[in-house]
């Protein structure tokens, strides 16, 4: 199946498509960070939307590393969310058991966050290539979005791994 990407759309529709890509990327990265339960819902909704879109235009699902990492990210996030929920709400759990699990919870959260960032960056690169942006204003928007996501991830990593004054 050959994929052709001839751009014959009007600038407004190209802008709307790029805005959709950027919002999709931001929801996939910032959703889990801002609100855990809602982030999981946004992630599942994002996967549903992209599967539906691929089916409508006749593209295969799950054919890039971006899609595989995205599915792994959402599944891992859902698993950690459930485990964290049951561990924190379990009435018989001792504080020492919760304290023992906390470093592992933080580590798993960082791994999931890095997976989300990597998947988002690969999705931006994939959109850049599929849309054939080259040297254009849209390309600058996509590139700066990727740069800002990287800087956000670096600041989150710094915040998590710097020693605290507890």
Automatic annotation (TrEMBL):
Coiled coil: none annotated. It is a multi-pass membrane protein. The keyword Electron transport applies. GO terms for cellular component: membrane. It is found in: Membrane. InterPro entries: CYB561/CYBRD1-like, Cyt_b561/ferric_Rdtase_TM. One of its GO terms (molecular function) is metal ion binding. It comes from the Eukaryota. PROSITE patterns: CYTOCHROME_B561. It holds the Pfam family Cytochrom_B561. Its cofactor is heme b. The keyword Transmembrane applies. The chain crosses the membrane at residues 21-51, 63-86, 106-133, 140-162. Residues 1-161 form the Cytochrome b561 domain. Keywords: Electron transport, Heme, Iron, Membrane, Metal-binding, Transmembrane, Transmembrane helix, Transport. Its main location: membrane. PANTHER family: CYTOCHROME B561 FAMILY PROTEIN, EXPRESSED, CYTOCHROME B561-RELATED. This is Putative transmembrane ascorbate ferrireductase 3.
């Amino acid at each position: 199946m050959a994929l052709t990407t001839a751009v014959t759309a009007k600038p407004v529709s190209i802008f709307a498509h790029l805005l959709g890509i950027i919002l999709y990327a931001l929801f996939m990265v910032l959703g889990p960070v801002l609100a855990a339960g809602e982030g999981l819902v946004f992630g599942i909704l994002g996967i549903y939307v992209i599967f539906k879109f691929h089916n409508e235009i006749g593209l295969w699902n799950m054919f890039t590393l971006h899609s595989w990492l995205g599915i792994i990210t959402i599944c891992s996030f859902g698993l950690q969310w459930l485990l964290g929920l049951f561990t924190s709400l379990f009435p018989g759990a001792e504080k020492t058991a919760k304290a023992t699990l906390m470093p592992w919870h933080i580590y798993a959260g960082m791994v999931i966050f890095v997976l989300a960032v990597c998947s988002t960056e690969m999705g931006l690169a994939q959109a850049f290539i599929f849309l054939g942006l080259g040297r254009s204003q849209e390309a600058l928007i996509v590139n700066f979005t990727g740069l800002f996501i990287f800087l956000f991830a670096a600041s989150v990593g710094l915040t998590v791994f710097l020693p605290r004054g507890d």
